[in-house]
Write a structure and sequence with these properties.
With 107 residues, the chain is mainly alpha-helical. Helix content is 63%, strand content 8%. A two-stranded antiparallel sheet has the order 1-2. β1 and β2 form a beta hairpin. α2 runs antiparallel to α4 and α3 crosses α4.
Length: 107
């Protein structure tokens, strides 16, 4: 629907706008029920782990932009923002790897 501004909590400047305009929730739900859920259930834990590693790698491509957004929106210092983002990007793959579920894992 209507656009909503997202504010920098320190300066109150508008840093972005968000909206649900154009999102077809009924279609998204139908896809999840008809295709997405069964495809996910058909995957092994190792395959799901591989998918999560790919998601982390894709997010890493936007690392600098995410750091800048954390600084603007959360008032983080650059080091804090970098630490938070790096931790999250590395946590899931390392957790999966330790469980033998990441690509090349033992299970």
């Amino acid at each position: 629907g209507e656009k909503s501004p997202l504010y920098n909590p320190t300066t109150e400047a508008i840093v972005a706008e968000t909206s649900t305009e154009g999102i077809d929730y009924a279609k998204a739900l139908a896809f999840a029920r008809d295709k997405g859920g069964s495809a996910l259930r058909a995957m092994t834990f190792a395959e799901r782990g591989e998918m999560l590693v790919k998601v982390a790698k894709a997010i890493h491509e936007y690392r600098e932009e995410l750091i800048d957004l954390a600084i603007q929106n959360g008032g983080n210092t650059r080091s804090d923002a970098k630490f938070d983002i790096e931790f999250e990007l590395n946590f899931m793959p390392s957790l999966l790897s330790g469980a033998g579920l990441a690509p090349g894992g033992a299970r």
